[in-house]
Structures are given as C-alpha cells and as structure tokens.
C-alpha cells in the first residue's frame, strides 16, 4: 500500500495513493485525519492535496484508510447518543475542514436502533434454498477463510470496492476472535453446504462488560432472501440472550438492508458520509 503521512502541530493525515476507483478512475484516499484547530487541519490537508496532485492523480476520496475494509466515513448527523463498538468518529472541525477544501458527499450511510423484541417477531417466509445456522465457536481460521471468499464476491458489486489479500484479511479479523459471541454469528448454507451468506453480530462492548444492545455489524449474501433470514436469526438470538436493543450499523442509504431496517421500525440515530474531491488540471 503506497502511502505518505503529513504532520503539522495539532494535525495529521495519511495519503494512500492506490485507493479504490471512483467513477471508473483511480483515486487517492485520505485517512487517519485529525486536527486540534481548523487552521492546522486546513494546512495539513492542503499539503496532502498538493502531494496527490504532484503524483499525477486528480481524484481524492476521504476519509478512508486506503479502502473500505478499513476505517472510513465522517459522522455528519447525530442525536448525541454514545458511540457504539467499532463505529467511526470524528470532531465537527474535521468534517468542516474537508468541506472547506471542496470535498462533497459522494456516498451516505446511517445507523439505526430498534427493540429486539419487535424485530424478533417478524418471521420471513420459509424456504428450502438455504438453511440458517449459528456458528459453533470452533475453527475460527476456517470460518474466516469462508467469510473472505464470500465477502470478495458479495462486496465486489459495491461502490469503492477494492480487493484485499487473504493474509491482510486474516490479519484484520483474527485478533477479533476473543470478542466474538458465536450465538450472534450466523451462516446461510445451501443444500450442498456451500456458503450462501453470513452475518456478524457482536455485543456493544462500548457500553461496558454487560451491554444491553447488540450490533448487527456486517452481513453479505449471494442468495436472494438470505439476508432477511440471517437478520431474523440475529434478532431472535439477541432477544433470547437478553439484549434490549439491536443496532443496525453503518448501512448504505441505497442498500436493500436500509429498506428492511426501516420496515422493522428502526430509528436512525446517526448519519455518515464519504466525501470526494476532483482536482482541476
């Protein structure tokens, strides 16, 4: 990963020169951005933009730590409720610095919450195309190997997708294994036992050792309807485990899951944006 970091007193940013395509063209990304003042943030961002231009690129995406497998997005709206586990965060100044530099929102996302007793009652139509099973908690390397294979297929259709190596994927996710709760992780399997989809849920440990909310963090499927069945299994399990609230985390505004979240009566409490800048000349 080609990158260069810039620092000014009270501000920093990292430029990734091999970011994902935007509108079919190569882009740089700006990640790890922070600033203590608007002035320092503006200065360090100007350095980063100048560097990108000097490298012959004229599109920049941010904030993004190189790709969508890593941290990206700014919080753009919030009701002030506490951050949940693994949620991106930023100061209002950071967002304003990007906007003043000419960045505009190119993709929107949201997080919503809903009482699990409400969603657990909504049973999807039965199917023989796949079966839903919870992870038994064993062989995590084999688990993540399957998840990697399905993720690279399912997410390849997403905007700003960039492939990642299996080794890099494992390096990111294997350290999370001690935090995983098997009863909140589900798989959809076809009759021949091939993987049709997966869902990763986790307790919201940001609340402390005994959280009352569970996060529907990530799911992907290659079979129509698998996502709805996986989500139902998650909500039902969360209710059985005594969680009060489900957090539907970081959903793209145009995703089918956004429609499903709304239909389940989930209330949006945070919005996020990914921003872009096209340079002239």
UniProtKB/TrEMBL annotation:
This is N-acetyltransferase domain-containing protein. It comes from the Bacteria. It comes from Yoonia maritima. InterPro entries: Acyl_CoA_acyltransferase.
